[in-house]
Design a protein that fits this description.
By secondary structure, the protein is of the alpha/beta class. The protein is built from 7 helices and 6 strands, in the order E-H-E-H-E-H-E-H-E-H-H-E-H. The longest helix is centred in the middle third of the chain and has 25 residues, at 73-97.
């Protein structure tokens, strides 16, 4: 039984991935922020040492849109610390205890799209994508699966009046992540998952990059 650690464990995407993996025989640990703070090295190290995952799914994320003109330095720091720092810290400390650790990064369509007030989020997710490709070239199994607009609590908070029927279902996104865990995509692959293309992706018709 392979062991999977999913960061940002209280979120809807993490819970959908956890349920699907457990259904298929994986042992899954999805710590909440209180259980594992991805910006705190000691917290990460403790969890990695105690659980020692075979597969790490870097899912923890933060987004609060602000114009760069507002100079909200604390908000900018949170994007960098959680989205990028957390991904790198968790990966490095995970590899410390399991050099064969496999990495699935939950990116974002924002890594390849521009949004005027999302610069910190877009930039940090683009950095996660580049890190994924570097790790694959470094001999680590690493894949980045990037959801587009998804039906989550975070999205609902940001856009309360959005038509929910136009959003990607977390359960469908989880199926793509499951395929990545099962090595159905080559290391270094980046897939942008949207409501409009998820069924084609699951049928094996997917672009390696977008």
């Amino acid at each position: 039984m392979k062991k999977v650690l999913i960061t940002g464990g209280s979120g809807g995407i993490a819970q959908s991935i956890k349920a699907l993996l457990e259904k298929n025989g994986y042992e899954v640990y999805a710590p909440t922020r209180a259980e594992m703070d991805v910006t705190d090295w000691e917290s990460i190290d403790k969890n990695m040492k105690e659980f020692v995952p075979d597969i790490l799914i870097n899912n923890a994320g933060y987004v609060v849109p602000r114009s760069i003109k507002e100079a909200d330095l604390e908000n900018a720091k949170k994007h960098i610390d959680i989205n990028l720092g957390g991904t790198i810290y968790c990966t490095q400390l995970g590899l410390k205890y399991n050099p064969a650790l496999e990495i699935i990064n939950v990116g974002s369509a924002a890594s390849v799209e521009t949004h005027a007030t999302w610069s910190e989020y877009c930039a940090t997710k683009a950095a996660v994508l580049m890190a994924t490709k570097c790790w694959a070239e470094d001999g680590i199994f690493a894949v980045c699966i990037s959801p587009a607009r998804t039906k989550t609590k975070m999205r609902k908070f940001l856009y309360p009046d959005e038509d929910q029927s136009t959003l990607l279902d977390p359960d469908d996104f989880a199926k793509v992540v499951f395929n990545a865990v099962e090595h159905k995509y080559p290391s270094g692959t980046h897939i942008v998952v949207r409501k409009q293309n998820v069924m084609d992706i699951l049928a094996g018709k997917y672009p390696l990059t977008e």
